[in-house]
Amino acid sequence: MADPGLRVVERDGSARDYAIKDFLARNQVPFETRTDPGLTSVAVELPDGSVLAEPSLIELATALGLTDEAGSSHYDLVVVGGGPSGLAAAVYAACEGLRVVIVEDDAPGGQAGSTSRIENYLGFPAGLSGGDLAQRALAQARRFGVQWMSARRATALRRDRRAWVVDNDDGSSVRGAAVLVATGMRWRELDVPGAAELRDAGVFYGASTPVAVRTAGDRVFVLGAGNSAGQAALYLAEHGRRVTLLVRGPSLAGSPMSRYLVDRIEASELVDVRPHAEVVSVGGTDRLSEIVLRDNDSDTVSTVPATSLYVLIGMTPCTDWLGGQATTDTRGFLVTGTDLLRIDGAWRLDRDPLLTETTLPGVFAAGDVRSGTVKRIGSAIGQGAVASQAIMEYLKDVAVQRIPEQARVSSFDLLDGDRDGVLGAADLTAFGRRLVAAFDESPDTERARRVHEACGEFWAVLSRFSDKDSPDGEGVGREAFVGALDELAALNAFAPLADAVLLLSDTDSDGSLTLGEFQRLLGALGAPTDAAATTFGELDHEHSGYLDTTRLAAAGVLLGRD
Description:
Layout: E1 7-10, H1 15-26, E2 32-35, E3 43-45, E4 51-53, H2 57-63, E5 75-80, H3 84-95, E6 100-103, H4 110-113, H5 130-143, E7 147-149, E8 154-160, E9 163-168, E10 173-181, E11 185-187, E12 203-205, H6 210-214, E13 220-223, H7 227-238, E14 243-246, H8 259-267, E15 271-274, E16 277-283, E17 290-295, E18 300-305, E19 308-311, E20 315-317, E21 363-365, H9 377-400, H10 405-415, E22 422-423, H11 425-438, H12 446-462, E23 476-477, H13 478-490, H14 495-505, H15 515-524, H16 532-539, H17 549-554
Parallel strand pairs: 1-2, 5-6, 5-10, 6-7, 10-21, 12-19, 13-14, 13-19, 14-15
Antiparallel strand pairs: 1-3, 3-4, 8-9, 9-10, 11-20, 16-17, 17-18, 22-23
């Protein structure tokens, strides 16, 4: 076997040791382990020979290149949760040109990513692991430019002027015009004496990674009667562990477990089903050593030795980080779309909520966290696709509404530096140089490079509207530009250029332009500034006193008046 080059040096198999190994396994990072009783804390030896002493997950993810840093001050879409629905929405949105970032606290795939075997997903007759499916989806998303911020847990959602801001537990935050909540569900914790103290030290939630097998020991119990519990029991058994499946009912026959799993468990020589079983408590000094069980049929109590207990007894939606801002049903799942109209006071805008939109305009939900959904991978992926369409409709309405006619013409004039009435690639190149020089920016800086790249990206889209009657048949005339502006905005064509402009002109680095900064921007370009306040007001529909990337992009980036 090839040397993986990464080693986790354990002290005593503590909960911290397990968390690091589990994170690596879920992200499909190969590693070896060794024990050093002399250590005071876990350490990770990297392939380059450096050592991380008791690293946080974000430190580990950064060192291994598993996470991206925010590459934009303002995204079109912030997806919170990298499960099937979040990844699907990100792929579809990015395909349409949106700037997308995913914030994920663990590994791609969410709960589905930790599933040992998926056998009922269309197109994979032999089945595949949840981790494999998730890694393929992440690779696809990244190919379309989606940024992946992993090992970060979203802690709050707030409105800042005209943007939604997601705050994370590492102190970072990301801003976006729209947010998709795809946080899914978490395992319901076992509420018995000893369970909290022994979490990840014998009491585990989920059991579908190689780490689960290596830490299982020889007295293995799985608690639950759903598909996840059945898959976990079979997974552990396939790796040579004898497993006792604890179920509250008289058998698996009337449980929610799929029939094909029941049949396999009944046929397995390594899985024993213990009916009428309820966990009363768990015990152990540093690690789990025993489980106290009650037989709910005979009302007798017994204590059994145990090395591991995998708890899969149902799930609860991950919505607490929203702080009660969004309407939920009685079980905590997010209510969306027209279902909000059935709840008094849940929706307050004149328009109807879009499909999958929550109480918060511009904040959408998809996947298991959404009320009334089928909790299946295929359903989650479909919901992500549907949500992406609703989000694009929302962004189009925000971006295209009431662009002033004079602003359309003035935008063309600002880009047409040689005043020949036709825009071409040379005009965009010259515009970039003029913009950089106007702000006294050196042409070889990162900001200057961003401006020139953005001009090239903008021309790549604008050239689709080339006027055949132009001198070389490749330019875009004034009339064609003005007529195409709505479609250009809907395509989000101006977004890269707006980002670059904002980078240069946002003197206080708050991610938006004040009227003063807007006036300076126009003046730097030699555009008329006498009506800047009027133009600013026409763009600032909500009278917030600020223009963000969305508004700049919507108006054709730079606005002036003749």
